[in-house]
Amino acid sequence: MLGIAPETGPEIYAALVIGFSLPAWTYFTFGDLRGTIGKRMLRLVTTSVDGRRIAPIRAVGRTAVKLMPWETAHISVFLLVPVPGELTSVSWIGLGLSYLLGFVYVGILLASHGRISAHDLILGTQVERSELCPNTKGKQRR
Description:
The chain is mainly α. The protein has one domain. Helix content is 59%, strand content 7%. The chain has helices spanning 9-34, 37-41, 56-79, 89-111, 118-123, and strands at 44-48, 125-129. Strands 1-2 form a two-stranded antiparallel ribbon. Helix 1 (9-34) packs antiparallel against helix 3 and helix 3 packs across helix 4 (89-111). It is globular and about 50 Å long. 17% of the residues are buried.
């Protein structure tokens, strides 16, 4: 469609970054700062554990931790593989790491009974219900 036909692992990885990773990073980062559609509907906001709004750098960090297993898998299977489908030992180690991270993330959720996620635990953030409408600087939702 766009005349792009990636053939090598790094080319496929670059296409994935442009087509999937950048939009996902943008969505989750701005979602933490401004609220996603779902968060707005449920009146949820991302704050620091002391209840203050998070800074943009913290939102990027939260997104980085959140997407770490996904990005590790992409790097391992595409960027570190010159020929698609031919995984190297380093690729297998990276892929194993991505699965391990996923299991750790699920373990944190189970241990906290769904109250905290890995990215919240690591970055000192939380998602909480707010009666205030996000982005209205303290005005009550009508």
